[in-house]
Structure formats: C-alpha cells, structure tokens
Amino acid sequence: MPVTKRRQKRHQNPDMTIQELRTACSGILQPHPDALRDTDQIIARLFQQDISWVLSHTDAPATEQTVKQALNMAKRRAKHEPLAYILGFQPFYGRDFIVTPDVLIPRPESELIIDRIKEDLASLTNPKIIDVGTGSGCLAISVALALPEATVTAIDVSAKALLIAKENADRLSATNVLFTLGNLLEPVQGEADAIMANLPYLPQNEIDLSPTANELAYEPQLALLAGDAGLELIKRCTEQSVSILVCGGKLYLEMLPDQIPSFFVWLMTNGLPFTNSVLQDLSGLNRIVVLTKTC
Fold this sequence. Notes:
alpha/beta, Rossmann fold, 2 domains, seven-stranded mixed β-sheet, two-stranded antiparallel sheet, 13 helices, 11 strands
C-alpha cells in the first residue's frame, strides 16, 4: 500500500514540460510585450542553455526546483525588476558581464565607444586609456581585450561597483586593467591617450517621464542622475581631461541627443581646446561625443 500511494502521488504531480513552464511564466508576465522573450531567457538561464535549445526542447521535463525558480523569477520581472538583475548578467560586446543592483546595466549604445576607440588607437603602441565611472567594467574590459597592449585604468566612486568590475575582469581574463577608487579623474597621475566616460547624465525629469521609469528605479541612482540638466559630471570630467590627455588625445562621452548642442555651446564659451565629432546610435540618434584635444 505505501508503494502504491507514492506512485499515485508521483502520477498526480508530474514534472512540467518546458512548454508548460513557458506558458506559466509568460502568463505571469502578461501583458508585457516581451513576456515570452523574457520567459525564454529565464528558462535558458536556469537550464544553462541558449534560447534556441529551449525552443527545440519544449517537451523536455523541468524539475520541481526549476519550476519554482522560474516562477519566482517571472514574478520579480512582473514587478518591473530589470531582467539583467534577475539573471545576474548582461550581454555587452559579445560577452556576458556580471551585474548586480550595485552597477548600471550596460546598454548597447555604449558599444559604439568600443568600435571607435579600436579604430582611433589601432596605430598606437602601448596606449594608456582611462575609463571613468566604470561600473560593471564593461567598457574598460572590452577595450582591454580588444587592445591587449593597452593599459586601461578603470575608476569608480563606488567600492561596491569596483568589486563587480574586478570580478568581471578576472572571469574574462582582462589582465591589463587597473582598478582605482576615486571621483572622476581626480586619482589620475600622468598622461593618457584616451578617456572613456559613460557618466550619469539623466536629469530627474527624464527619468520621471521615461517609459522604463519603473525599471530605472532598480538601478543605482548614483550612476544615473546628474545636475545641470544632466551635464554636471560630464562638464567636470571634460575640464579635468584637458591636463591629462596628450596632444591629439581623445575623450569619449555618452549623453542624450538633446544635451549635445548645449554641451557644444559650453565648450566654445569656455574656450576648451577640443575639436568635436558625434557618433549616432542604432536608432540614428546622436549619442556619443568624441572630443580631440588640440595643441
């Protein structure tokens, strides 16, 4: 009799298939337009596979533990927690970077800086590069791996962020990155060929009006918000870079498209020694400002 009961219990509670789990999780996430995409990423993460594997193994069983984890993750996502924090990583420039609520989630727009800096510094031997406000380390590490002869100094004002960045560097074998705790360029001694700065540039009203405001609330506000219509830290970093960049050295700045004209007016008004150009993001919007120091 005990054996029969156990068999009946097992029969009454069979493991879910992956397809059934997809249906359950996407149901929790409705009416979010990316409900199924997010569901498949959650399941892929738990099975340590890619999404194509999930879609080709919909009849495979999901254990009770996996089902519980997936449903809990879907519930977190339904409360607008960013998927990157739920999964624990974010893809950037072809690699997965560990992310936690202590660091900003890398955005694909920032990859433009990597493409441009590789082109600009390709002819230099042992270039010196600084990444200001490194966060997860995605920019510093991507550049260090793309230019293995470079020395990259990654700076952040947050000790917790630097721990995440160091973990990413160790995991991705970026041995040519040095990590420094400090405010903007204050810790820097000596000259640099290039400076990357993906600094906080959002004014509060931009966050309040954003369609992703609920998700942005989960990210570190220290890495998002800035005064002076979002340009406060960008302007300070630009001023500091004048004494650090070599002649012809470049400063790469990410900002909102409508901030760029006023930033250029500020540059000209203050007579800072830079020529400028602008890179457009994947949506065709002006996004990355490239300043070249004149001599």
